[in-house]
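Supplementary Data S3. Sequence and C-alpha cells for construct A.
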Amino acid sequence: MDAARLRVLNLALQDRVAAQRVIAEFAPTDFPDFQAFVAFLAEHERLHPNAPGQGVERGLALLGTVADHIGVVRDYHRSISDWRAGGRRGPEPAAPWGPAECTLARREGRPDPGLLRHASMVATRQMAQVAAPDPEVFDTVTVAQAWQFLTRAQRVKRADAHVAGTEARRQTTQDRSRWAPVLAAHATASESGEASWQL
C-alpha cells in the first residue's frame, strides 16, 4: 500500500512529531522506494533538533540538510579525482559511507551513510514526490489508515523475523544432536590415542 507510506512521509515532512514517530517505530527498509528520504529525516532530526518543526520552513530546513550532504558527496568525488590525477600518491581518500563509517553509524544509532550518499536523488525526486504526491494515489487513504497499515505491516515483519529465528535455532540444535555421537567418539579416541576423523 504505497499510498499509506506516502501519506505518512508527507506528514513527517511537514511535522517533527510525525517524523520522530517514523524514526522511532520504523526502519528505512519499511519504505522501500524512499529509504534514503527516511534516512535524511533521521539525520536532520539528529543534527538539527532546533530547526523549524512544522510547515514549509521545516521542509526547507530538511532540504538544507540534504544539500549539505550533496556537498559531502561532491567533495569526496573531487578528492578521488584529484588523487587519481596525482598518480594515486598517498592513501586513497576514504568514502564517508565506507564499511567503517557504516559500522560506527550503526553503533551510534545514526542513519546508514550508504543511504545518505543518495542526497541528489532525494533532493531532485523524492522530496517532490513526498511534498506534492499524486492525488489519485495519496487521497485513497487517510492519515489514521496509513499509520494503522504501517504498524500492522511492522508487526507482521517482526513476527516473520521471530519465526525465522526460531527455525534457525531449531536447525542448529538438530545439527548439534546429529554430530554429538561423532564428536563424542572422537573425544574418546583422542583420550586413548586413536583419534581419527574417518567416519
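Construct B, processed identically:
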Amino acid sequence: MLDHMIFNKLKWFNIADNADSVTANGKKYVSMPKSFTIKKGANLGYLGVNQYESYAYEDTNVTCVGSSNDHYYFIGNVKICDTSGSDYAVPHNFSMNQISSQPGFVSKADTKNVIWGGKKLLHTIASMVEYAFTSFKKGAETC
C-alpha cells in the first residue's frame, strides 16, 4: 500500500484539501479553522447561553476554538453593542482560562477571511479518521 501512495502521490486517507467535514464509521467530524474575521453587525452569543445576546460593532479578527455544522466558537477581544448599528460599543473579552471560561459563538455565515491551519489541519482530520477506523477494527476483533 505504501508504494501505491508514494508512486501515485496519494495521501494516507484521501481527503480533499477543501473538505469542511469528514464522515467515518457513521460519525461526522467537522474541520476547524485557525482564525477568522467576524463581520460588523454579526449576532454574537456566549457558550452556555445558547442564544444571541449582542452584535459585533466592527469587523474583528478572533481565534477559533471550536466548530459545529452552523457555528464557529471563538476567543478574543471584540467590541460589542446591544443593537445592530449602534453608535455605542463596549470591549468584551471572550476567553477560556482558569478564571473565566466564556468563549463566544457566531454563525458561519457571519464570518469572512477564514484562515485554515494547512497541513496541520489535514493531519488532525486524518488522525481522527485513523482513530475511528482503529476503534472500529478493535471492536470487530473482540466480537
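The chain has two helices and eleven strands. The chain has a mean pLDDT of 77.
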